Every structure is written in C-alpha cells, then in structure tokens.
C-alpha cells in the first residue's frame, strides 16, 4: 500500500502511540515485559490504562534502556516506507479516567541524571519529551515527526521543523 501511495505522489504518515497493547504473545508487549520497560503502579505492578488498542502498558522513557529499546522498534516500524510519524497520545493520554492521564502516584525508574526513582507527577512532562526525541527524532535526521494534531502544519514543510 505504501508503494502505491508513493507511486501516486503521496506521503505516508503513520500514527504511533506509546500505549502498548496488554497482550501476551504480542512481541512488543513480551519484549517490554521481559526487559522491564513499563511504568509501574504504586504497588509495583505494571500500570495498565485504556487507549486505542484497549488495555495498554506504557514504556518508562525515563530509563535510557527503554529509550534505546523504543528507538529500535520505531526504526523497524519506519523501515516499511513510512515518510513520517504522527506521534499521538504522548501526554501520556489515558481514556476512561477524569484526568485523561495516568495517576501521579505511578512510579518511574528514571536514570540518575533525570532524577532517579520518582512518581509520575515528577516526570509527567519529561516523559513525552524523552519518548519523542529519543524514540522518534533520532530515527532519521530527515524524518518528519508530528507531535500532536496542533502540529499538523508541519506537513507543509517536508523538511520538518
């Protein structure tokens, strides 16, 4: 399909959400679980919240090992001919809760230089920046990343901004 779009002069912008479907047997969920990449609830269990795929877990981008894991996944994702990513739900957004995000009591096992082991209220704004930059921007210097709907104007500038 991407090749057909390109042949007809179109660019392919694919949506990429950080919420990973909570499903054993799904390779992204399984590798993230094996390598301890998820944000935790206050009780130490992985936090699950509802987003587009249904129940999801969320990578802890405050850890360098998680950012590296994510960037490898994004690079593979982009190897299919995609021209850009719509970086959606990176607030992080969570459905079916009043706050529309994860609880402030969730735990991040952040790297020491970011602040170390802290709750989500400490890392809320840092989380999406780490995800966006290390997970997406570093995939390619020429790659267009759309951070949210308000940034769709970037589509008119194919070099990004």
What does this structure look like?
The structure is a single chain. This protein has helices at 2-7, 27-34, 64-78, 120-136; strands spanning 13-16, 20-21, 48-51, 54-57, 84-87, 107-109, 117-119, 144-146. The protein has 161 residues and is of the alpha/beta class. The protein has a single domain, classed as TIM Barrel (Alpha-Beta Barrel). The protein has a 3-stranded parallel beta sheet with strand order 1-5-8, with no helix packed on it. Strands 2-4-3 form a 3-stranded antiparallel beta sheet, with no helix packed on it. It has a two-stranded antiparallel sheet with strand order 6-7. Mean pLDDT is 82; it is low at 146-161.
Shape: globular
Averaged pLDDT, please?
A: 82
- Summed up, the helix count is 4
CATH H-level superfamily: Glycosidases
Strand content: 15-25%
What does the largest sheet look like? 3 strands, parallel
Helix and strand composition category: alpha/beta
What pattern of helices and strands is seen along the backbone?
A: HEEHEEHEEEHE
Number of strands: 8
Uncertain runs with pLDDT below 50, 5 residues or more?
146-161
Count of separate structural domains:
1
Return the CATH class. Answer: Alpha Beta
Distance between the termini: 27 Å
**Helicity, in percent?**
25-40%
CATH architecture: Alpha-Beta Barrel
Radius of gyration: 16 Å
Domain Glycoside hydrolase family 31 TIM barrel: 1-126
Keywords: Glycosidase, Hydrolase
InterPro entries: GH (IPR017853), Glyco_hydro_31_AS (IPR030458), Glyco_hydro_31_TIM (IPR000322)
Organism: Protea cynaroides
């Amino acid at each position: 399909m991407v090749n057909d779009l390109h042949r007809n002069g179109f660019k392919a912008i694919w949506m990429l959400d950080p919420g990973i479907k909570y499903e054993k047997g799904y390779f992204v969920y399984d590798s993230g679980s094996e390598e301890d990449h998820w944000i935790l609830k206050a009780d130490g269990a992985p936090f699950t919240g509802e987003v587009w795929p249904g129940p999801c877990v969320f990578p802890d981008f405050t850890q360098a090992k998680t950012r590296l894991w994510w960037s490898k996944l994004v690079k593979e994702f982009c190897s299919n001919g995609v021209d850009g990513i719509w970086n959606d739900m990176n607030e992080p957004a969570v459905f079916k809760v009043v706050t529309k995000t994860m609880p402030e009591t969730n735990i991040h096992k952040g790297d020491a230089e970011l602040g170390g082991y802290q709750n989500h209220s400490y890392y809320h704004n840092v989380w999406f920046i780490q995800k966006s930059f290390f997970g997406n921007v570093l995939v390619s210097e020429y790659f267009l990343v759309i951070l949210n709907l308000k940034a769709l104007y970037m589509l008119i500038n194919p070099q990004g901004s």
